[in-house]
Amino acid sequence: MNLESAPQGVVAGSIPLFAGHPARDLLPLDGIQGAIDAIWRGEGATRLFNYGDEQGNPELIEFLVKRLRRGEGLEIGPENLMIIGGSTWGVDMISDQLTQAGDVLLVDAPSYRDALHIFHDHRLELRDVPIDEGGILIAEMERTLRELEAGRRAPKFYYVVPNFQNPSGITMPKDRRRAVIELSRRYGFVIVEDDVYCDIRFGDRLPPSFYALAGGENVLRIGSFSKTLAPGLRIGWLIGAADRIAAFVGSGLLTMGGGANPFTAAIVAQYCRSGAWEAHLRWLREQYRARRDIALAALESLMPASVTCTRPRGGYFIWLGLPSSLRVDDLAAAARERNVYFAPGTGFFVDPADGLHHLRLSFSFLPLEDLRAGIEILGDLIRQRSR
Q: 304-326: string of b/e by CB count within 10 Å (b at 16+)?
């Protein structure tokens, strides 16, 4: 791998176990090329080079609305959905529109580190709530809410990755989702549901989304093509109540910019409307399932018994717990000397100290031989340093 072709953050020649990117051989290059060719030959190709509708490409909105109504039974129309420039863009826009500096947010512990970074950029106060194998601990969430209420404060929203969470890989069950919705109604906060991994599931049907369970009330749900097509397209979507979507669409960002990525949105709309995305998803799930199985088998055979790991039913990530005698920063330094890089757990907590004995591995990006080799190196290093 040379520097010109290395994806974000990847050191050439390394084993990047941290990389939450689609593998190169899983990118649908021919299908995307076909979509580009079809648009290029069609009438009105010049519209690709102009500003677009503030709400986003109408054909893509129509496709997504029909898919969500058919696949999940959501009672939504075009007024409930807008196109955004990837999930990160959506998280930033929501933070900008719903909060001001000093406001309180609730997040999981651990939570998606790049979202935490955005919240820090907005100078928001983060209160993190522990999770277990079923997601956020409801009793702890309620305790935090009561504590805030006693100080005459309330969170603006709760940010959650409900399916195959980044970083832990866990999925929150239906009963906890309902309990969170009940707390959101009682304490008056919005639920921001970052659901970018829902289409990468390895079998079971997922629990209904927060949006579905709440009937769309006070929930903003983010989706993205970054994990199932290509992150460089920078295209996603946001679902919400019509008045909230209208407010976002009417923001200065959209009215000045002419919608999110009109050029690539038209390409993605063409690709999806041809049926290619659904076919690609069916194939993609099997590819990622195979990678997940290989990663888990390698962890089971190559890691000492003192290491724990989650067993995700979809997504990209496995969360490892290290023995208490081993700090993740020491392990990371040793791994770098062997040209192996992973995501230390410290970056996924409001208080980095809470992640000193955890790390995140991604099975989505690496060739299978590198995936196993990287896990083997980590296993050797953990054994050497935890004796």
A: eeebebbebbbbbbbbbebeeeb
Neighbours of 384 (CB within 10 A): 11
Domain with CATH 3.40.640.10 in the chain: 33-276
Is the torsion defined by CA of 119, 123, 124, 129 positive or negative?
A: positive
pLDDT per residue over 186-197, tens digit each?
999 999 999 999
DSSP string, 237-273: EEE--HHHHHHHHTSHHHHHHTSS-HHHHHHHHHHHH
Q: Widest CA span of the chain, in angstroms?
A: 68
**CATH topology classification for 33-276:** Aspartate Aminotransferase; domain 2 (3.40.640)
Q: Return the SS3 of 283.
A: helix
Query: Domain 3-28+278-385 is of which CATH architecture?
Result: Alpha-Beta Complex (3.90)
What's the rounded Cα separation, in Å, for the pair 331 and 342?
10
| In contact, 165 and 132? CB cutoff 8 Å | no
Q: For residue range 270-322, what is the model confidence (pLDDT) as tens digits?
A: 999 999 999 999 999 999 999 999 999 999 999 999 999 999 999 999 999 99
Partner residues linked to 224 by β-bridges: 236
Encode pLDDT of 231-285 as tens digits: 999 999 999 999 999 999 998 777 777 788 899 999 999 999 999 999 999 999 9
The rounded Cα 111 to chain-centroid distance in angstroms is 10
